[in-house]
Amino acid sequence: MVNRVAALVGKGKIEMTVGPVPEPKADEVLIKVRHCGVCGSDVHNFLEGRTGKRVISYPFVLGHEFAGDVVALGADVTNVQVGDRVCVEPGAACGHCEYCRIGRYNLCEHMRFLSAYPNVGSMQDYVVFPARNCFKLPDNLDTIDGAMIEPLAVGLHAANRGNVKWGDTVLIIGSGCIGIMTVLACKAKNATNIIAVDVFDNRLAKAKELGATATINSRTEDVAARVAELTGGRLADVVFECAGRPETFNMACDAVRPGGAIVTEGNISEPLQMNHVLINMKEIDIKCMFRYVNVYPVALRLISSGEINIKGLQPKIFPFDKTPEAFDCAINDGKSVLKCVLEM
């Protein structure tokens, strides 16, 4: 077996190399990766060489949105078999810390998350990972669908954090991949009105196609005024900030109703000036989120049953040896391409 690797060798530079095929430990499986998505965090690491305080030492391997075939088992593995097609939840929690014990393992103090430095990622032919993180793909899903489970998990966790329910009006600011996944999640949770916001009309058209009941182009419309018009002055029950910009957070504060909630899906890395008086007077619940927790099985059932149309995102597929081109597309063609996926 040959293990091709897309190695990040410097800021903005990936080289195709070959590395050793890893061997699974007793509780792990060896997976032949078939498809791997390019995440926004991959793009950030590609361009900046760091995430927060974590500075990457090169070479490094990105990627964590993947699915493939089980090709070897550790001695203690019983939940999957060789030949199973699986998607993988890419965060291996310790299972013993306070946060794992209370069911919020996404906050695990000892989390090993693929592509979060120093944990090498899945942009390679072969990956080993704990078998407990592997989920068999239903027969009606392919490994492209499997690679899309991870970003959908973000949207589902956001909808859970916002306690979305029947009767709610939700506003989703930013209609990129994560925003669209949040549209799908809110639709699955029976939100009555789903309003999508973006500056690109083609993204808004995709949001409408996949479940948004109304759209707003924030380049040409006042978002809060338009939401007030659509809701008879009530504004949104829950706002999802998916763009990660200071101005879109403040837009969320203007567009949420008194007593409503804002879920911060986007990571705002710039200094943020908030109108604390407005937030306090409206008694807005600001709910932060980090990755996801306990949603992979639900995501698989929703897609397999047809309640969520994951294929509607129509990702752009790149051969593995065109990984640099996939990153270029993710960086420069975000207006027209929602998701880039590598095919091994």
The CATH topology annotation of the largest domain reads as Quinone Oxidoreductase, Chain A, domain 1
- CA-to-CA gap between the ends? 13 Å
Radius of gyration over C-alpha positions, nearest whole angstrom: 20 Å
Mean pLDDT: 96
CATH architecture title of the largest domain: Alpha-Beta Complex
Strands, total number:
20
What helical percentage do the residues reach? 25-40%
**Major β-sheet annotation:** 7 strands, mixed
Poorly predicted tracts of residues: none
* Portion in strands: 25-35%
CATH superfamily of the largest domain: Medium-chain alcohol dehydrogenases, catalytic domain
Total number of helices: 11
Classify the secondary structure makeup into a structural class.
Answer: alpha/beta
Q: Give the overall silhouette.
A: globular
Description:
The chain is an alpha/beta fold. The chain has two domains: 175 residues, Quinone Oxidoreductase, Chain A, domain 1 (Alpha-Beta Complex); 134 residues, NAD(P)-binding Rossmann-like Domain (Rossmann fold, 3-Layer(aba) Sandwich). Helices cover 28% and strands 28% of the residues. Strands 3, 7, 8, 11, 12, 19 and 20 form a seven-stranded mixed beta sheet that branches. It has a six-stranded parallel beta sheet with strand order 15-14-13-16-17-18, sandwiched between helices. A hairpin with a 2-residue loop joins strand 1 and strand 2. The model has no long low-confidence stretch (mean pLDDT 96).
